[in-house]
Amino acid sequence: MSTRIPRRLAAALLLVPLALPLAACGSDESDDEGGGGGGGGGGGGGGDTTLTVLAAASLTDVFEEAGELYEEANPGVTVRFSFAGSQELAAQVTQGVPADVLVTADTETMAGVEGETGEPTVIARNELTIVTPPDNPAGIDALDDLADPAINLVLAAPEVPAGRYGREILDRAGVEARPDSEEPNVRSVLGKVRLGEADAGLVYVTDAASAGDDVLSVPIPEEQNTLAEYPAATLDGAERPDEAAAFVEWLSGDEAQGLLDDAGFLAP
């Protein structure tokens, strides 16, 4: 890219490869639930508003539903999501990609961009689990089984929150496991297991739940597990900072928290 291209244009061009993961959802109906009331003020600035939310891949299903509810409660507001690994989202922020809100799957990644965001708010927590294909061909029953070099193990890459959490869990349990593949986000780990391309993987409990009968979940004992925290923050470069702040506030409200709870996330 030529250095003569204006920074704003260069940042916008970075969004092109992300066109496919972007999900936009809209509705003309209103929702009078209590959680929507907090966001109503944010959508009342006159004219249509589009909020771009960079969100951790593990939030894909629940946030798409949350976006629809938020739009119903805030006519004229469209919420557009870009889902990816938290480390990739942070890179987009530092590169100046236009967006309004950032939600990561760990506080460490959020802290790395603190000069680019408002004060973060933890909106949910999560835990990890082992997933295998439904027939569990490798007979995985516990973390110790992941040390078997004969199994095909897939983990998120070390720089991805789920990858870092997974390695912390394995280290705590004294398990020396060597992954056959390291994926750019937790949904890629889940996808490989669902397709039968791996014998086992470590994903969030909510990812396993979203896959239904396509995977078998092998729980990790609480004393060996870890709690992942999901902070949300407005971005300093947000074009509609008030509306962005209203959405972040709404994520901590009853309606959004109910959706997160139904999806298997733990309370903040």
From TrEMBL:
Residue positions binding molybdate: 58, 86, 162, 186, 204
Chain intervals for the UniProt region annotation (Disordered): 27-47
Biased composition regions of type Gly residues, renumbered to the chain: 35-47
Descriptive protein name: Molybdate ABC transporter substrate-binding protein
Family the UniProt entry places it in: Belongs to the bacterial solute-binding protein ModA family.
GO molecular function, one term: molybdate ion binding
Region forming the signal peptide: 1-24
Pfam families from the UniProt entry: SBP_bac_11
Matches recorded under CDD domains: PBP2_ModA_like_1 (cd13538)
Assigned keywords, A-Z: Metal-binding, Molybdenum, Signal
Xref: InterPro entries: ModA, ModA/WtpA
SUPFAM superfamilies: Periplasmic binding protein-like II
Presence of keyword Signal: yes
The keyword Signal belongs to this UniProt entry's keyword annotation: yes
GO biological process, alphabetically ordered: molybdate ion transport
Gene name as annotated: modA
